[in-house]
Amino acid sequence: MIESTSPSFSGLDVGQVVAERDIAFTRDSLVRYAGASGDFNPIHYNDVVAESVGLPGVIAHGMLTMGAAASVVEEWAGAGNVSDYQVRFTRPIPVPNPGEAVVKVTARIGALDEEQRTARVDLTVTHGETKVLGKAQAVVDCD
How far apart are CA 93 and CA 51, in angstroms? Predict the structure, then answer.
């Protein structure tokens, strides 16, 4: 069993950035995610279909984006220390061919609950200047 240490509550401040990462999505990563998840919706691999439903082209899976953002918090907080995670999907992420769509994830302490010894981590998830997840928040159990 892997032991994980949770963040020290006393070392946290509201507004503090605790993690940042750029995540690149390629058409290859979309194919891999489709195979792993079973989500073979053609908007995630076929430009003609995606454009026919009003999208700018192939887009990343929402759950892939959500999971990638959560992994930034989980790596900072330690395995098993994220007790809640919620997001709203606000904008699609077009993935070019060839090339990649880079998503920037910034995790910042939004609130501290001294009684529960938890930290609410607010995530800003953007593609270029566009916010792609809204109200993305995780609750982390602290020591």
Answer: 13
Q: Could you report the per-residue pLDDT of 23-35, keeping only the tens digit for each?
A: 999 999 999 999 9
C-alpha pair distances (Å), 69 with each of 42, 73, 91, 99: 23, 7, 15, 20
Domains delineated in the chain: 12-26+60-141 (3.10.129.10)
- Model-wide pTM > 0.85: yes
Residue 82 · residue 73 · CB < 8 Å: yes
Both tokens of 44, joined, read 């995630």
Low-confidence ranges of the chain (pLDDT < 50): 1
